[in-house]
Specification:
This protein is α/β, with parallel strands linked by helices. It has one domain: Vaccinia Virus protein VP39 (Rossmann fold, 3-Layer(aba) Sandwich), CATH 3.40.50.150. It contains nine helices and eleven strands. The strands form two sheets. It has an eight-stranded mixed beta sheet. Strands 2-4-3 form a three-stranded antiparallel beta sheet.
């Protein structure tokens, strides 16, 4: 067990129960009460929009010469609703800055910086190589499908850095696979540490006054859309979740003091 978690185990259990009561989800079959965000790919047929996609460099899939399809992952859509023009944004695990390009396509223009440890990745935006390089503050910090690739020790160490650089009125947005949805976490051999939403809620509450949870499901195919009623019924009967990811938004940052 992580040293911090070990020392704060009683507090974490209490905060876990706080989260379970907050969403009236004391039992697995009640997890469906947590608000769910569905997104689906965006079909683009307008010539000007397609030209802008190419200009920005946003990743897309062409269908013939007149139609293209854009991915709209749940965390991106939630992030777009929270981020405003001129917000300072740090995107941890930014890769080639595709989230920034998604924001630009949707007419949101933040002051964006990335953090990426892969030195082979090229990006048009400022990119830090580690948290130690960062000496400014940010309104928004995002971590989209990053923490599952870390050990719990690495994640908690990063949380102390996030507290240091996040504006007191800022927000942290974290997305991770929903370990309560069968097979999701196991899809990537590089996944190291799963986080049930209620435990992640408790950890974030050590550092923040308010944490909101959303379940996310990406309707990437017609089959996924058609199968939702079946998934919901089976989820209740088998006491499992059917949404593939969870997105948590934390606000009211405070410096956590052990003790």
């Amino acid at each position: 067990m992580n040293d911090l978690v070990s020392k704060q185990y009683g507090k974490i259990i209490n905060l876990r129960n706080e989260g379970l009561h907050k969403y009236n989800s004391l039992f697995p079959h009640e997890f469906a009460r947590i608000p769910t965000v569905h997104t689906r790919p965006h079909l683009v047929t307008d010539r000007l929009s397609r030209s802008r996609i190419h200009e920005i460099g946003l990743r897309h899939y062409d269908i013939g010469s007149h139609i293209c399809v854009l991915n709209r992952p749940v965390p991106w859509v939630i992030g777009r609703k929270l981020i405003k023009n001129d917000d300072t944004v740090l995107d941890i695990g930014s890769s080639d800055g595709m989230f920034y390009k998604f924001l630009r396509f949707n007419n949101v223009a933040p002051r964006y910086s990335g953090l990426e440890i892969d030195e082979t990745v090229r990006s048009e935006t400022p990119v830090y190589g580690s948290m130690k390089e960062i000496h400014s503050t940010f309104n928004i910090v995002t971590m989209f499908h990053v923490i599952e690739h870390m050990t719990s020790e690495q994640f908690l160490e990063m949380m102390t850095d996030i507290v240091r650089i996040l504006d007191p009125k800022g927000s942290l947005i974290i997305a991770t696979p929903n370990i309560l949805c069968p097979g999701v976490f196991e899809r990537d051999v590089e996944h190291r540490q799963p986080y049930p939403w209620y435990d992640l809620y408790a950890i974030l509450r050590l550092f923040f006054d308010n944490v909101e949870v959303r379940r996310g499901h990406y309707l990437s195919t017609p089959l996924r859309m058609a199968s939702i009623p079946v998934r919901m019924i089976l989820g209740i009967l088998m006491e499992q979740d059917w949404c593939e990811e969870v997105v948590l938004v934390a606000r009211g940052v405070h410096r956590f003091i052990e003790g």
